[in-house]
Design a protein that fits this description.
The protein has 76 residues and is α+β, with helices and mostly antiparallel strands. Strands 1-2-3-4 form a four-stranded antiparallel sheet, with helices on one face. The protein is built from one helix and four strands, in the order ββββα. β2 (21-28) and β3 (31-39) form a beta hairpin. Helices cover 18% and strands 39% of the residues.
Length: 76
């Protein structure tokens, strides 16, 4: 992942339980530190931080990776 050197590990994950959509989860070791999610029910794209302070470059790379991996269009 030379284009995203700050990202140690990520997973593309969909959720159809409490919300309906797809996103990427960013991990440091075994801990999820950040999620970027496309919520098809609310028609929003959201960033959730699971660690209080994150490097801005890491957040920017996560958003760029989300745009590369996840289709932009909402699903009905």
């Amino acid at each position: 992942m030379d284009k995203y050197p700050k990202i140690e590990k990520y997973v593309v994950a969909s959720d159809v339980g409490s919300r309906d959509g797809i996103g990427i989860e960013i991990y440091s070791g075994n801990n999820m530190i950040l999620e970027v999610f496309r919520d098809d029910t609310k028609k929003t794209r959201e960033v959730t931080l699971y660690k209080k302070e994150l490097d801005l470059e890491l957040v920017e790379q996560a958003i760029a990776l989300f745009k590369k991996e996840i289709p932009w269009e909402f699903q009905e």
